[in-house]
Amino acid sequence: MAVSWVCVIILTYNLVFGEEILVEFYPSQSLLDTQYKIDTKREIKSNDIPVTEYNNDTKEINWRQFNQEEIDDGEIHKRALDPVFHGHPKTREEKWNEHFINKTTTFDQIPSLVSLLHNISATYLTDCTPVILYDSQVKSKESYLVQNLLKGFPMSFIHGYIDDNGELSQPNLLHGNSDCQNYILFLSDVRLSAKVLGKQPKNKIIIIARSSQWAVQEFLASVNSRMFVNLLVIGQSFKEGDDETLESPYILYTHKLYTDGLGASQPVVLNSWTHGKFSRNLDLFPPKMTGGYAGHRFVVAAANQPPYVFRRIKSDLDGGNPRVVWDGVELRLIKLLAKRNNFSIEIIEPQEPNLGPGDSVIKEITMGRADIGIAGMYLTNDRIKEIDVSLPHSQDCAIFITLMSTALPRYRAILGPFHWHVWVALTFTYLFGMFPLAFSDKHTLRHLLHNSGEIENMFWYVFGTFTNCFTFLGKNSWSKTDKITTRLLIGWYWIFTIIITSCYTGSIIAFVTLPVFPETVDTIKQLLAGFYRVGTLDRGGWEKWFLNSSDPETAKLLKKLELVPNVQAGIRNTTKAFFWPYAFLGSKAELEYIVQANFTVTKSKRAVLHISNECFVPFGITIGFPNDSVYSAKMNFDISRMIQSGLIDKITDEVRFEMQRSLTGKFLAVTHGAIQMVSAEEKGLTLEDTQGMFLLLAAGFIMAGTALVSEWMGGFTRKCRITRKVDTPVSVNSREHLIPTPKTDTESEIKMVEDTDSRLNFESRPSTAASRETLNGLVINVTEDSIDVHNSFNVGRFDSRRSSSLDLDREVREIFEKDQKRRRFTAHDMESLDENGGTVSRAAFGDPIKPDK
Ligand SMILES: *[C@@H]1O[C@H](CO)[C@@H](O)[C@H](O)[C@H]1NC(C)=O
Ligand SMILES: *[C@@H]1O[C@H](CO)[C@@H](O)[C@H](O)[C@H]1NC(C)=O
Ligand SMILES: *[C@@H]1O[C@H](CO)[C@@H](O)[C@H](O)[C@H]1NC(C)=O
Ligand SMILES: *[C@@H]1O[C@H](CO)[C@@H](O)[C@H](O)[C@H]1NC(C)=O
Ligand SMILES: *[C@@H]1O[C@H](CO)[C@@H](O)[C@H](O)[C@H]1NC(C)=O
Ligand SMILES: *[C@@H]1O[C@H](CO)[C@@H](O)[C@H](O)[C@H]1NC(C)=O
Ligand SMILES: *[C@@H]1O[C@H](CO)[C@@H](O)[C@H](O)[C@H]1NC(C)=O
Ligand SMILES: *[C@@H]1O[C@H](CO)[C@@H](O)[C@H](O)[C@H]1NC(C)=O
Fold first, then answer.
1. Are the C-beta atoms of 330 and 374 separated by less than 8 Å?
2. Nearest ligand 3 atom to alpha carbon 281
3. What are the start and end residues of every segment in region (Disordered) (predicted)?
4. Is 709 in the pocket of ligand 6 (CB under 6 A)?
5. Does ligand 7 come within 6 angstroms of the Cβ of 561?
6. Ligand 2 touching residue 98 (CB < 6 A)
7. Residue 742 pLDDT class (50, 70, 90 cuts)
8. I need a labelling partner for 227 at 20 to 30 A (CA). Which of 56, 67, 286, 352 fits?
């Protein structure tokens, strides 16, 4: 067993990177102890060249002999012992002492260190794969240590070699297939660690320093150590006296970050290890920065992005001394963190603001000019790659902003109360309403057929009931009808009309004063149906999320996307849209803020904006830190605590509350005394609201004007008028003026219809006991003012119908007497009236009256 073996099984396997990395595994300690002996000349000649490989096919393990370039025949040569006694005999023990013990009076520290590392690994490094790295000194002079360490290492591990320049022979080892890697470094110069590992804010770093304690302490106070958070440095303490036979303890150091305002760090002695035991029982990787940052000043890059960051310029009351004031959700969040964790902030503005708020702030961070970046940044994959980001503290998404109503123009207000269905139904009701009336009254419609005057009368009658403003008292008026059916019909028409009219009036009042609860645009379907044009910010990036949308409607809508330079322009486009409505696509939080801040008190009702309910592409809002910054994990943790405790919600609510103030800076929500509701509706009607009525009037004037012109020119309207004059009866009103006689005792009246085709009607109504029944039960009471005198009055018929009644004779005589009286009475009145174009005939009662012309 004289030959020592170094057992190196080199397995080849692929890491994620597709490159082959050689990882060495060692057999267990017990195997080695029982079978092999380590040679005194511990040197690995060529560790890098894989001498043999594990062959999967043959499953043969070829052992390479230590210090042997070529594999020999495998014969084991026994050590030759000379049996001949030469000189003073020495016992084996003496020889042993002489050759071994005296030479190794120095206490072997290596087993102590190995057990310490095994203990730490088993206790603390179980979460991630440890990466063991050693430099050339360890590799050449202390390979025994590494071998012993690796032999019994309590878990699977990766190991690699650091060359003299501090470069890893296999740099991929630093970027394993998972983010989580712990490191154990054997370094002759502890300062090299920063160069080897770079910034390591999360992983646990154990450095076994082969340098002096002073070097270790210096390192822990230096900038280099501030690249690590979970750092443990193991150094060997000085021996007591010169007694090399005693075990010297290992001292475990860590550092304290942010011990003063400049962000310095200090070495801290954590523990010591001797005789296989720790001197204290404590956590070797204590949480860092728990005591805050000792007033350290962090540079915060901020860009205006309401409501997360506001940048406002405030000046004194006299307008002087302008200064920038920062506020907003994220700023308050950072300030709260600063207060809690004892740091201060200095806000800088990005040097390249034209990149847009988010990107310009990220630029500041990546250029190393800022420690924290706030600009309401969306958490995207690209940004995660560029910088460290916090947990998303708020949510935002894309929404559309449109005008509140579908912007029904006010000139349509007069039609507004009714849906067009109602208008059509109403028109037909009133157009055809005259037929049942006419029929019920005369039990025939024949009198309508050739009598346009009758139709006109009826139309005005029906229309009069609708508008409630005409009381038609023409000779064809049915208001004095005695037919029950007609009266019923009229009654029901009247009720119907009253209700419809009050609906209309009530609704039009509401329509022009308060906007009817408007139809709001909330979905893409509505936008498409309303022929909306859509705009968005040219560098907001929103369009990217929609362009390749699989939703056909979204794709269709956003095909004609228009880009505007800023949000104000987008909102202006929306409110000023004339022919086609306009929708602006942007960040929900920002647009909500703008709408609340700037459009709660508006001059025009058309500036009331609506934010769609549909929320596209939700994004988290995050705070940025430089890549692998030491404090980002701690801040992230604090932010997550703030989210969990609801502090973020509180801040958001507070900011929103303060947003809702008027342009003058007054809070809308808080006033002295009561809460003041500012409603846009509490004002008088504007010209805009009433333009419909004016337009209607103007239309009437135009029509009348055309008629007038045509009459002047002697057009067809004149002819119409002539023919109508022949047919139509004289105006009732004019005659009422003519006959101002006091009422007589008789209360019934005779109504004579000039219709020549129909039979003569004496229509009367029994109303009082004074009336007398005559002629088939009809009561005929004739008063002077109730006699209508018409042209083409046929006396012959009159006589023929009432021949046999004495009463009738007497009454007729009375009528004629009264008629004479009346003629005398009104003779001079008539003269004047005739000059005015009156149409009452001068002929004697009973004579057929000729038309005036
Ligand atoms: C290695 O050997 C094992 C067991 O015989 C077998 O399952 C595996 O496929 C082999 N791998 C290769 C790469 O040959
Ligand atoms: C071994 O050490 C002892 C005591 O330290 C000393 O007396 C003795 O001479 C040493 N033997 C040799 C061979 O050096
Ligand atoms: C490490 O050493 C301590 C003694 O200081 C012991 O209590 C503990 O069990 C050891 N841990 C492991 C994993 O061996
Ligand atoms: C913040 O840190 C400084 C420096 O260590 C210290 O003087 C100060 O008292 C700390 N403030 C708080 C509130 O802890
Ligand atoms: C930050 O780290 C990522 C990889 O984690 C890298 O791609 C990026 O370039 C780094 N950014 C800076 C500014 O170093
Ligand atoms: C959209 O699709 C085109 C090709 O189909 C592709 O080049 C482009 O990168 C896609 N854009 C996004 C934002 O996915
Ligand atoms: C929207 O605004 C932009 C920039 O102000 C302007 O160029 C564009 O013509 C506007 N679009 C509409 C439809 O008003
Ligand atoms: C609000 O309106 C004022 C005046 O029009 C304008 O200066 C300001 O930029 C607007 N604020 C926002 C957030 O749009």
1. yes
2. 5
3. 826-853
4. no
5. no
6. yes
7. very low
8. 352
CB 194 within 8 A of CB 224: yes
Whose alpha carbon is nearest atom 4 of ligand 2? 102
Would you place residue 434 in the very low, low, confident or very high pLDDT band (cuts 50, 70, 90)? confident
Residues 6 or more apart from 162 whose CB is under 8 A from it?
A: 133, 134, 135, 136, 168, 169, 185, 187, 192, 196
Q: What's the CA gap between 734 and 616, in Å, rounded?
A: 72
Domain boundaries, the chain: 109-278, 289-393+622-670, 396-406+518-617, 418-513
Least confident among 30-34, 507-511, 822-826: 30-34
Average per-residue pLDDT for the chain: 71
With respect to CATH, is domain 396-406+518-617 assigned 3.40.190.10? yes
Q: Which amino acid is at 557?
A: L
Could you report the per-residue pLDDT of 475-506, keeping only the tens digit for each?
Answer: 555 556 667 777 777 777 778 878 888 888 88
Pocket lining: 595 vs ligand 8, CB cutoff 6 Å: no
Quick one: which H or E segment has residue 795?
A: helix 795-801
Residue 642: per-residue pLDDT: 92
Q: Which residue is closest in CA terms to ligand 7's atom 10? A: 573
State which amino acid sits at residue 129. T
| The predicted structure's pLDDT at residue 844 | 43
Assess contact for 133 and 160: CB atoms under 8 A: yes
Is 231 in a helix, a strand, or coil?
Answer: strand
Fold of 109-278: Rossmann fold (3.40.50)
Residue percentage of the chain with pLDDT more than 90: 12
Positive or negative, the Cα torsion across 639, 645, 647, 648? positive
Exposure pattern of 501-538 as b/e (b: 16+ CB <10 Å)? eeebeeebeebbeebeeeeebbebebbeebebbbbbbe
Q: How far apart are CA 274 and CA 296, in angstroms?
A: 38
Q: Is 336 exposed, middle or buried (0-12, 13-18, 19+ CB in 10 A)?
A: middle
| Structure-token pair, residue 811 | 């009454």
Q: Residue 685 corresponds to which tokens in the numbers above?
A: 């009607």
Cα separation, 144 vs 41, whole angstroms: 10
CA distance linking residue 207 with residue 219, whole number of Å: 11
CATH code given to domain 289-393+622-670: 3.40.190.10
- Note whether 289-393+622-670 and 396-406+518-617 share their fold: yes
Helical spans, DSSP H, in 224-378: 329-341, 357-366
> Would the pLDDT of 753 be above 50?
no
Between the CA of residue 406 and those of 264, 522, 530, what are the distances in Å?
62, 11, 8
Mutate to test the pocket of ligand 6, among 548, 550, 558, 561 (most ligand atoms within 8 A of CB): 548
Quickly list DSSP for 629-664. -TTHHHHHHHHHHHHHTTHHHHHHHHHHHHH-B-TT
Which H or E run includes 323? strand 323-327
Cβ atoms of residues 300 and 349 within 8 Å: no
Nearest to 303 by CA among 336, 273, 330: 330
Interval 721-740: pLDDT, tens: 555 555 544 444 444 444 44
Instruction: Please give the number of the atom of ligand 4 that sits closest to the Cα of 261.
Output: 4
User: 645 pLDDT exceeds 90?
Assistant: yes
Give the pLDDT band of residue 410 (cuts 50, 70, 90). Answer: low
Distance, in Å, from the CA atom of 227 to the CA atom of 381, rounded to the nearest integer, reads 25
What token pair was written down for 641?
A: 């605590």
Q: Of ligand 7's atoms, which has the minimum distance to the CA of residue 582?
A: 13
Strands (DSSP E) along 67-190, which ranges?
129-135, 158-162, 181-187
- Write phi, then psi, for 556 (nearest 5 degrees): -65, -45
For residue 732, what is the DSSP state?
A: H
pLDDT at 332: 93
